[in-house]
Amino acid sequence: MTSTVPNAVEHADEPELPPITMFGPDFPYAYDDFLAHPAGLGQIPATEHGTEVAVIGGGLSGIVAAYELMKMGLKPVVYEADQIGGRLRTVGFDGCDPSLTAEMGAMRFPPSSTALQHYIDLVGLETRPFPNPLAEATPSTVVDLKGESHYAETIADLPQVYRDVAEAWNRCLEDGADFTDMNRALRERDVPRIREIWARLVEKLDNQTFYGFLCESEAFRSFRHREIFGQVGFGTGGWDTDFPNSILEILRVVYTEADDHHRGIVGGSQQLPLRLWEREPEKIVHWPYGTSLKALHVGGEPRPAVTRLHRTAGNRITVTDADGDIRTYRAAVFTAQSWMLLSKIACDDSLFPIDHWTAIERTHYMESSKLFVPVDRPFWLDKDEVTGRDVMSMTLTDRMTRGTYLLDDGPDRPAVICLSYTWCDDSLKWLPLSANERMEVMLKSLGEIYPKVDIRKHVIGSPVTVSWENEPYFMGAFKANLPGHYRYQRRLFTHFMQDGLPEDKRGIFLAGDDVSWTAGWAEGAVQTALNAVWGVMHHFGGGTDATNPGPGDVYEEIAPVELPED
Prior knowledge:
By secondary structure, the chain is of the alpha/beta class. The chain has helices at about 30-35, 60-70, 115-120, 160-175, 180-190, 190-205, 210-215, 225-230, 245-255, 270-280, 355-360, 425-430, 435-450, 485-495, 520-540, 555-560; strands spanning about 50-55, 75-80, 90, 100-105, 125-130, 140-145, 150, 265, 305-310, 315-320, 325-330, 330-335, 345, 365, 370-375, 395, 405, 415-425, 465, 480, 510.
């Protein structure tokens, strides 16, 4: 068991079941098989080779889309307002060993993210287990609630009430969401069964909050159990900040085990988009061998921020950037945070149908903050002379820090502490404070949990911090749908299917994790990038090999549930 509260019913008696992937449930398409197929992702007519396509946003979704479009023989023109990577952002500490890094955005990735793993393997990156609470890679965990601390190496070391909460969550999933049936169907990629279960649940639960779902379960009749579950949670820590969100958002996570068995990327996650930017594909059409995205851009840099998007004659997409350069394209892929279309970028209403504008405007983003400090060594592995326990542990608490993660690269090397990782209201509490002010509050909170540990004496550099809600090109960490938002999400995700749109609404394709059904997960960024690649290919008259149909080719068989009035 790797979670404080398990996020799945155990399958110990069924070892023959295949591993889980992020295969649906809204769109059960095998992106991993699509990527692995020797026929490739498709081709475009030779007459279109070399045609420029705008790719707006240099995060993972944008870079994956640009990379695959380049391989097809198109010329991606990437626009990036800040730095390649988006929320895959890895930073160092001034004056410290360059090997010491902090993941300001995405830092842990589940093995069910199989399309993401394709690119991690492609660029030769290594992963290792991430030290989540009570994970096998985590030496010890301390759960500190209401001033009372409990030390644990496994969940069996925690008081009975925590095991009761774990059992309540499993029962809640079984009774209210057919967990075992759906988990099995996803493992076996049984599309008819997935669609049957999910269609019923979407209609039943679209208007339900996470908290309301718990309250309706007999297993969670106890307020104390719901409180503990919210503060401690499952997989990565407390989930009470998600309580107002749609329960469908949570079910997508637990069905696919997206919140379990996490791994981190050695050296930092930002290496993935950066390496793709520089990678020279072995199989490429039109462009000479040795071509990379970097080589296709003047000076090896993306174009600057987009300041205006509008339609011009012939249903073209015209892009104005921060340098005042104006270029017109037959196709564009927009992967930046969707609210940019409402604020930072001057847009024509004619870019999208009005229902899509409504969906963009209704997007709900979660706030998130982190603060890291470099330390001289992983001192937390020292043993307390009296108890024999680790002097400090991965910590879940209801204090201001909420989640504290301990990250090391060996006993004799400098290490990093994520002093605090918070979301929503907990994140907003930090917003007015500088990095040093945040550190002082955090050290005070941790000092109350570990009164015999002098964390400060081990700190060897200045803290680094981020509040994603304050980042001008993001304004939030990740999307999380509220009850009733399923219809909006469906419109955004299915936007790559444009044959049914008027001709004057085609040619620009939405992508990015917030357009996906798994917002906040890099897998969603990859999947929607591949949808957009298929859309652009189709827009230019291209197609896939018959032996490797793309997401648009099988769309009618696996299209997301359509609710009334959508």
